[in-house]
Amino acid sequence: MARELADREGNIPFTSQEQAPQWLLYPGSVEHWRTYMQKYMPIRSFFDEQSQVRNLVAAELGGVAKERIEEYAAPVYWVPRHAAPVNTGLKLRPVRVVRCRVGEPTLALDFGELETGLYAIRVIGAAETSKLRGFREPLYVRVSVNDGPGGRKSAYRVRIGYCDEFYSVAEVYFHAGERRRYAAEVMVDAGSRVEHQMQQILPHVIGGERLRRLHEVLRELRHSPNVRVLSVG
Prior knowledge:
Layout: E1 56-57, E2 69-72, E3 75-78, E4 86-91, E5 95-100, E6 107-114, E7 117-126, E8 140-145, E9 154-159, E10 167-176, E11 180-188, E12 196-205, H1 208-222
Antiparallel strand pairs: 1-12, 2-5, 3-4, 5-12, 6-11, 7-10, 7-12, 8-9, 8-11
């Protein structure tokens, strides 16, 4: 019976088609994460719970006017293996977002004290379905972070892709040159023609705890008197 419902490409509606499932990247996550090769094998994200430093929900940040906070229910799509995504007409549970337009609001982020290393600031958000088109209207995000010497601010501006589901739409990298407190500001920048519903801003340490632990193990082995290092060639 199911085969009789298949389209001309052989896609049976609303089945997994043996594709690898999406990961829940961290507790309470609303973001989708997909890659092309996910249709063939399980794939892990570079960012997940073990690399996450903070989980900053946009609607809970200080300084955001109440009229900018609203609820957004993302649509549910079925993504077949070899065809365009299909809107099922269903929606996910609404979550609180901050509607951002050019220069309003500026989201102030406190990352607390960070160890030296490379970090990524990930912006999770969506745009309304009615605002989508084949060639996207421009949407720019500006991120300022005090990663310079003596706490001097650096500004990063990126043009982002977007859809009506929650994805990581911007990933801005910065280097923490010393152990101290770091802070950032995020805003929709000039030239944008679309408003954006921001849900979360997530700072991640590149490599996360697993890579950090590997470095510690290798460091211990290198200085162990019971380990001989062999050179080949």
